[in-house]
Design brief:
Oligomer: single chain
Largest sheet: 7 strands, mixed
Radius of gyration: 19 Å
Strand order of the largest sheet: 3-2-1-4-5-7-6
Order of helices and strands: HHHEHEHEEHEHHEHHHE
Helix content: 40-55%
CATH class of the largest domain: Alpha Beta
CATH topology of the largest domain: Rossmann fold
Amino acid sequence: MSIQNLTTGTPAAHRAADPQDQALKERHQAMWASGDYPTVSDRLIPELGERLVRASGIREGNHVLDVAAGTGNAALPAAATGARVVASDLTPALLEAGRRQALRRGLDVEWQQADAEALPYPDATFDAVISCVGVMFAPDHQACADELVRVCRPGGTIGLLSWTPAGFLGQMLATVKPFLPPPPAHARPAPLWGDPEHVAALFADRVQDVRARREVLRVEMFPTPEGFRDFFATKYGPVVVARKGVADDPERSAALDRALEELAAAHDLSADGDPLLMEWEYLLLTARRSA
């Protein structure tokens, strides 16, 4: 049965957004639709979704929800196991890119626009609820955690892969933050999802058998810090938006470019003269929903 046809059990958290909240979500949609996130996902992090699927123990016959799925970095490998997969995301452009990729790979995935803070699914619907560097970017962390637990069946798996605060992407987001419009008061920094203590506090005693480990993604595709800067400045939504916001201010624009180059250089592990070699740290966390 298609999830679209399940009209009972609408969660209490699925509420009409106030105008400010709706405007924020529209800005998030526009941000992730800008640039070229499908290329970022395909070229930089294709293996992360596979790692999350393996760690979550997803197998044939499971009913799986990928929250903030983007273009399906985790949804597609989950579907490849034979699981029944719903991929949800706030941004229609990313869902459409994922749908095309699923068709090319002959994978059956149901793509649906949905807000991670108010998922439109009945309680205890899914055997596994996962998110790969996705749900971390929703501003209200507690609302997202509540929804992840709510739609997972008792005994089911919640699996998350998130950039850490101290890792490269966490530091990059901190670098870009001063060049972006200020977030609303209730928004929490995305990389906090990479802090196991923060995630434990969000879930509290509603989960058990929590397993959390830090791992790294080796990145070797950028020849120079300037090459890294140019790639992210044209393809990664938060950087694209930041750069656009300072385009009329040459001094701030140059400061943003310089900060990105310096960050990449500081994380370079290669020998002098070689292409950049970076290790991007993330937290891989799995847990079972308590009965």
